[in-house]
Specification:
With 268 residues, this protein is mainly beta. The protein contains 4 helices and 16 strands. The chain is elongated.
Length: 268
């Protein structure tokens, strides 16, 4: 069932002027969460609409199932299919830092001596990393390359100089490593990482339904004629992960020594 009768919604459309609708527009950070307000999976809907695109898009939505399809003719606008038109943005909703897992960043030094330590300089090398994940299992049609560019600007813009997302930079560091007798030593890095989460927002530019049996299209610029223009779903989000970086682009994190006992494979 459509959540509002066509009679009620026609009345709303008749009463709303353009000025009244514009007065209800909320900033992206104050978008209305429609999760649980619809009979369909709102998380999947937002991930389908906001798959990396930022251009204006138009189509049909089945308001009973959430299915989307292309609009080929206005005569296709009949219950339960309604027309939507709008665009997506990808604002930051939250951010946090965490310590990544240890990773070896140097060659090994083998000390075959039974009675003396071995000290020498060793170079640690690596590169910054970044990945992106989404919250809805089985999402299809995500445009990962443009999405990464959009997230780096819209969601992570404030971290441009302290975050490696959407960039790769090599690094190296030379330090002294002391290996005890009959041990094998190497260097590991414990990187500091940042996650930036974005709950994408769909900004409604026009929304149309048809009051059958007549070809009587009602159009407003709010989501389903409910007075709010910007929508999201709190369970629909993208997480962007990358290194926290210093001013020169090198990753922040500890580089520490590790060692183990010599084995037969070390050819001492």
């Amino acid at each position: 069932m459509i959540s509002r009768s066509t009679i009620q919604r026609t009345g709303v459309a008749a009463l709303l002027s353009l000025a009244a609708v514009m007065a209800t527009v909320s900033p992206a950070s104050a978008a209305t969460n429609i999760r649980g307000a619809e009979p369909f999976d709102a998380d999947r809907l937002l991930m389908s609409l906001c798959n990396g695109r930022t251009d204006t898009q138009e189509g049909l939505i089945n308001v009973q199932t959430g299915e989307l399809r292309r609009l080929s003719d206005w005569n296709d606008i009949r219950a339960p299919w309604e027309r939507y038109m709008g665009r997506c943005t990808y604002p930051k909703s939250s951010s946090w830092t965490w310590t990544g897992g240890e990773a070896r960043v140097s060659d090994t030094i083998v000390n075959c001596s039974s009675g003396s330590t071995l000290s020498q300089n060793i170079t640690s090398t690596g590169s910054t990393t970044s990945t992106t994940s989404n919250s809805v299992t089985g999402s299809v049609g995500i445009q990962w390359t443009p999405l990464k560019e959009v997230l780096s600007i819209q969601a992570g813009g404030e971290y441009t100089r302290s975050w490696s997302y959407a960039t790769t930079k090599g690094w190296s560091k030379t330090s002294s490593l002391t290996v005890p007798p009959r041990r094998v030593g190497w260097m590991v890095q414990r990187p500091e990482m940042r996650t930036v989460r974005s709950n994408p927002v769909f900004h409604v530019e026009a929304y149309t339904w048809n009051t059958l049996p007549f070809a009587n299209w009602a159009t407003v610029n709010s989501w389903r004629g409910r007075g709010y223009r910007d929508i999201n779903s709190q369970g629909a989000f993208y997480d962007a992960y990358a290194n926290v970086t210093n001013g020169d682009g090198s990753p922040v994190g500890q580089i520490v020594a590790r060692d183990r006992a010599v084995t037969s494979g070390d050819r001492c």
